[in-house]
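Researcher: Going back to the complex we discussed earlier. I've cleaned up the inputs and rechecked each line, so this should be the final set. Can you rerun the prediction on the complete assembly and write out the structure?
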Amino acid sequence: MKHVMWAVATAVFCAAPVWAQDGLSGPDAFAGIADEQARSVALFEEMGKVLTHPRCLNCHPVTGGPTQGDDMHPHSPPVVRGEADFGAAGMNCNVCHGTANMQLTSGSGSIPGHEPWSLAPVSMGWQGASLADICTQIKDPERNGGKSLEDLHEHNAHDGLVGWGWEPGEGRTPAPGSQELFGALTRAWIDTGAACPS
Amino acid sequence: MTTFRVNGRDHDLDIDPDTPLLWVLRDELRLTGTKFGCGIAQCGACTVMLDGMPRRSCVTPISMVEGSEIVTIEAIEGPEADAVRAAWTAIDVPQCGWCQSGQIMSATALLQAIPKPTDGDINDAMAGNVCRCATYVRIRQAIHDAAKTLEG
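Model: Rerun complete. Updated structure for the full complex:
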């Protein structure tokens, strides 16, 4: 019986598309969608699994300070956004967050860290926004920090703080897939016209 | 080997790079004014100045302070620190005192950034410093008093 179960498990594993990683599909998974705009929308919806993951949303609040955890509860200790998206005067983000994740010595878990570390500006906040609104927002240079679509690809594919989402330290669920896959999805989305969901 | 400066003295320590700065201050350098409260950056009792900015030493790996200047409650000085110390003493802010070195470091950092803070500024800057004796009313008063002193 064990052999049968092993064979079934192996068959299922091998049948999984090689372009999929931990809940995120790669661009090839959408190659069968003939209509380019529909394919572009589908690609963005796949990107949305990353964009709306708590690892990203927690530091993209619409107002106020960051949230924490997979349930996105308010940050503890209480913190405010501050004028520079870096906390209050006298208690900025770097009071606790260092240049890398730090394993807690007392108890389990870790304090997340990266250089640099800060909140996304208000114009880039998208907690609670629909995927359609997020799409329009991140394409808008007035709200995305003046980024072109190519800049957006660079940001998604190579920015270190974006990449932290897949290496968030003990006690946090990583964003789905990998930054490489997220970058490939972004590339394919742009190449198909960067269409947004309606 | 990690090289850093604490309260004006240079140190070269061969120590596990993951060791929290707080452990090094208290156990290696015997600077016990900085307190262990929670160990998870929730209470602020371990606050020190790292290159002029407040930092929770319990979540600061010693590897992160290579080449840095650290100032603890034993040596904090300057107009803001002096004003805070005087204001704290004048109205006997501490009760048990455990959190107070962290409170003083954060209050000093606040006054360095905002010489005349509002209640809102104080709330924002001091929110990460917990006091189990609930001396918050006196802490707020002392910060306002220190700010007045700094006005001249």
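Model: Worth noting: Chain B has two domains: 2-71, 79-151.
Researcher: Good, that matches what I expected from the previous run.
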